[in-house]
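Shipment paperwork, digital attachment
Item: protein structure file
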Amino acid sequence: MRLFGLAVVLAVSLALAPLAAGAQQARKVPLVALFLTGSPSASEPMTAAFQQGLRDLGYVEGENIAVEFRWADRPQRVSPLAIDLVRSKVDIIVTQGTPAAQAVKRATSTILIVMATSGDPVGIGLIASLARPGGNVTGNSILGPEVIGKRLELLKEILPGVSRIAVLSNPTNPMYAFHVRAAGAAAKTLGVALQVLEARGPDDFERVFEAATSGRADALLVFGDPVLTANRTRPANLATKSRLPAPYELSGFAEAGGLANYGPSLPEMFRRAAIFGDKILKGAKPADLPVEQPTKFELVINLKTAKTFSVSCQAICF
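Attachment content:
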């Protein structure tokens, strides 16, 4: 009887073992959420780069990692989506842009956050320092304010006689004051005047460009902002229509019809975000992972648009 009972116990244990192992394996698959702005089509280069970054690190979606995507198509959706993401109990949230990172940080102090892109995370209080972020946030800083001066210098290279520059900005972006201050300092050094115009969303674009034209602007400067980037085709086309040459900050504007973009590569920053996620999943703490700043910048020129503005490639191909 004792041997029979032992055999029954062993048989039941062996029968349950695959179920237990399967449940344990399912629990081990981490869930990563990408919190993006705009539309899926506008975000495709960034999401593709992140997924490729995961594959390069040995991850296979559906097997050893799960990835979800959330898009905030307008600024008002950022905070509600952040709260919803936190409630869904994902393991890591990867954010695009400073507003998304801020919203998630406000919603949780425990879920791990990787900034694919962010303006000045120290200045706005997301992290304690670049070297030791502290808390639950790490990732990439995009050097937005620092690049503004370089793009104004590029404008002077293109148009030496430029004297008045219209600025397209989103006042709801936490980096707005930093951008305005950086642009003002650079403009003073270069001897040009700025006309700061505000656009909270696509519905404001027509009004802004009419104001720039009536204000007799010679050129255009667009501050880095997720809403503006997600809708980049319209401002790029309006700039050409309004005869306002503009070097933009982030990837995609030149491809969308803008004159040029100069700044860090967004797909590359999302690929780096995958590396941050991998380190965290292997046990690293965001508090101890230094925030990275871009070391490579890309200058992309739309030659068709350059011809429209009668700009010689030699003036900006350096």
